[in-house]
Amino acid sequence: MLRDLFINLTILVTFHYLFMLVFKEYFSKKEDTLLRQLCKGIASGLLSVVLMFFFIKTGQAMIDLRHIPLILTAFYGSIVQTFVATCIVIIGRLLIETNVVSFVNIFSLTMIVTASYLIAERHMNHVVKILLSITIGNLMASILFIIFVHETSFELHFTYWIFSYIAGVFNFYVIEHQTKAYQLLNLYEFQAHYDFLTGVLNKRKFDEVLSHAFSLKLKQPLHQISLLYIDIDYFKSINDQYGHHEGDIVLKEIGTTLIKNTRSSDYIGRIGGEEFAVLLPNCSVEKTWQSAERLRRKIADQPIYLQNGTSIHITVSIGCAYYPGTLTDIKQLPIIADQELYKAKQSGRNQVSFSARNRDHPT
Length: 363
What we know:
Blueprint: H1 2-23, H2 34-53, E1 56-58, E2 61-63, H3 67-76, H4 79-96, H5 100-120, H6 126-149, H7 154-193, H8 203-219, E3 225-232, H9 235-242, H10 244-260, E4 267-270, E5 275-281, H11 285-301, E6 304-305, E7 311-312, E8 316-323, H12 333-346, E9 352-353, H13 355-360
Parallel strand pairs: 8-9
Antiparallel strand pairs: 1-2, 3-5, 3-8, 4-5, 6-7
């Protein structure tokens, strides 16, 4: 019996590990898409059905660990996921055998799942909740053994309870460990690619995007692309007057404004202390000008509320570069954008400088 219980435990651990590989951190996410909830529910239900086929025959009793996936589903899953998993197990049980015992089994499993779901919603220590749910499942199983097959062997019940606890707690820790590992991986990936303060791409990632765009351009020479360099006017005076913490609030607001007022296909990066860049694929000269002007006006017109309650208005200077235009080499885009930004600042700030557009639309 110990050997068979160990096989059940191995199946549980293996399947849950595979589920984590497929669903990653979404495995333990209650609020999820309906399709993913259905898939997770079906997967958990099928695991319980698989465990039924690896039942352990001991005297007239047949035992397995089918309740463990259902308990974990109730603990981690939504009500939809839990319901789907339970239905799969009910169908599987009826397909294997249909008699009074099978219906009693279905009723007991339903009670276990319901109790586990209600326990999972309680504000308690997670380990305590898992142990309590498993205990309820063990009690139900022992009662059924005694009533229907008159199995009162202390050794049988003790062994079953111990393996049930081991299976439930061990799989709980597998799921917890894998979930935290994926969350940390996502966090590290975010920190590697995004600026922690503003939420836009950091300089290294933006340079990668720019380099990738350059390589694509070489393959598609007629493709249009624009680059905006954006610098906050007199940002040093904001830090000096209000402090660096308030300056960080300004940077966050600028990042948010840029994200909200650009296309989903555009790339935004923070490339310096108070300097941002926006890469605009498939953007004509006129649309580049319109986008830059819209961003300048949005930032200038929108007050920024500091933590001390003060509201301030800030402005930005923007330099634009466009390819193909007059450029013969796409790699000159950053150079031209930087030169145009310098012109905007030298001409009084709070303006857009774009020589390619000015040539087409002389004032």
